[in-house]
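Exercise 7 asks you to align residues with tokens for two separate proteins.
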Amino acid sequence: MKIDSGTTAWMLTATALVLLMTPGLAFFYGGMTRAKSVLNMMMMSFVAIITVSITWVLYGHSLTFSDNPMSWLNNFVGGFEHFGLQSLVDTATKDDGTGMPSLIFSAFQLTFAIITVALISGAIADRAKFGAWVLFTVVWATLVYFPVAHWVWGTGWLNTLGIEDFAGGTVVHINAGAAALALALVLGKRQGWRKEPMRPHNLTLVLLGAGLLWFGWFGFNAGSELAVDGTAALAFMNTQIATAAAAGAWLLVEKMRDGHATTLGVASGAVAGLVAITPACGFVDPWAAIVIGLLAGVACAYAVGLKYKFDYDDSLDVVGVHMVGGLVGAVALGFLARYPFLEQQNEGLFYGGGFTQLGLQVLGPVAVGVYSFVVTWVIAKIIDKVMGFRIPAEEEVTGVDITTHAETGYDLGTVHASGVTSANGSVAPAAKKVDA
């Protein structure tokens, strides 16, 4: 099939937008940590770009989108038809009628795998060995992300049953949220948790990161249509409106509960809305997107407090925002799905679809969440036994940036000046050393 230049140009753009989300996540997470671990937190996102990119090209795409020659096994994992992507290089375009090069589709899907792995890191801020994290990214992508993506977006069992996940509410966010919970439990709580203040050290970075995530998410959601059409436009608009509604709902909860509407709240609320609309963005009307956003903003604003009730240290609220937000969006689709531009067999309960799709929208998140939690727990336990997953207590107190990377995010030790000329031409003495 001849290459469609319009679709190809859009998918190149969407792929770049989704890749930008991972550096955006690095800013978002980095600002939420304490100053002594900001660089390590950001490095955890950047190293995911390295490791997942390589594993995806070698075998990740193949395990996700190939058909396994053993039909019974194909329900759970793909085969090695596209090992090394050479077959995609030799195939000019996908055979699905979109007219895009096969490599563009693969690159687009790669960016989803990257950010899913990076999302997990927020649960273990301040206390993970960098080498252990690097190994974890490879093993987790191989044993969890690639199979789950095959279940839902490949030819696996959930896809066969008819689950809907337009852009990754289940594959990305519930998957990462469940893994984050398991990893937080294996590594344990930070030194001084609930006894010392562990507030975000730089809310400016948090807002910058949230803005980049919001911007990149249009590629994430609208790009998942893999075409330039009405559904892509619907996904684009729904992404915007649900995010705005969720951010507003979170601020309202804060104001009513705490008396203050905060910058951390608006950033977290926006991300919650982005997460929740992801599975449904191409399948619901704009009014329904507002409902989903409002539900997500309220639910996630309260869900982030679950870690105090159940005593687990999810450092940057990955569980409360991504797992809960993804669940809100996935289940809401079972009620509100209308498919205005698509012909689908099962619409939502409110549109006469009965309980069939609703049941699938509950089954998918539960199955993925349980699988991700259990396998992540096993992976983390093995890594912990083999090489240790957590840094020593004294290094944690000192700060993982300086002990692991020999760097600091902010050089505040001295202030230097060679002299300042005053208005009358005299030179003021140089500034003295100031200890931070």
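Second protein for Exercise 7:
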Amino acid sequence: MKFLFDDESFSFEALRAAGYIAYAGADLGEVLVTCRQIPEGDEAAWSARWAATAARVEGIGRDALAAGHRVSAREALLRASNYYRVADFYRRDDPAHDEESTRLAAASRQTFADAAPLLDTPARAVRIPYEGTTLPGYLFLVDDSGVPRPTVLFHGGFDSTLEESYPAIAAGALRRGYNVLAFDGPGQGAPLRDQGLTFRHDWEAVVTPAVDLALSLPEVDGERLVLIGMSMGGYLAARAAAFEHRIAACVLYDGIYDLHEPFTAVAGLAASAEGGLDALTAHNTQARWVVRNGRWTFGVSTFDEVVDATKAYTVAGVADRITCPTLVLDAENDQFFAGQPQRVLDELTCEKELVLFREDEGAGEHCHEGALFLFHQRTFDWLDTALAAA
């Protein structure tokens, strides 16, 4: 789905940013006026223009907060947080030593942290114990009654952040009576940037401590605990659910059978390109980002090492250990994992269903960007039915 840019990666990321309009994470005019100032494929301009928009909108939020306008402050700070995330997206050449990348990521976290207490039911920052340290999370509650409710455990994937979890899943869940415990794991957000924690394939080591924390909270109905993983999180959640059986239902958003395959495909493109990987990444925005983000999030120096590291990231041989009802989502035009959700479904032996989101309904992009309402409707309607049956 072309959106504002011919560059496929720019188009997708602009659509992703704009899609959060659904839950006050963006405003269409701000997206349009920002994108029209960015030349095709110009990553420096992308970062600068989104950062400028983020700073301007943050100023609106700060002024509204100082004047006592709670809703206006909340909405502006939520938009600013998303825009700062977008501004940092392509800064992956050396993010650990890129001062501007560090600043943008911190600004995205801080603006969200300042918006969280302004939600109708304030979000609660939590720390999840994890192997001698902690992982950051937010507990989003439907209300302050303390009534135990069905609760979603949510994590992202290859590039998503904790703060993105609010428009991506939590806002829609809250409207339907679900609490949400969202968190960043190794390879993601603050654990990667601040603690140097990189991805691991055995994601049950990450989810099990989150389950432990969730079950200690009075607001959580321990019999109705749901795990949802976004993007690469579709593999991570499946892996965790295969070993963590306190989960009542699982949603793979979307299904990933073998993470190694798309990275091998990029390596194949590099091998066939005149000039190799350097030539490919010089002219292909998506490949350049995949290579750079992969090196950082997996904690390696070369793309060959990234490709080798992803060999362990497959549900082959473990999917049949998932015992809870599982919803596998698919996107007709997925540019990363085409065909993989069906392969996951075929491996599952639990109660299962696959839902295909189509291009002709505006939902065919990876993770159904631009179609949040449809994604939430189908996902939570399925969960309502699955949890009621259980």
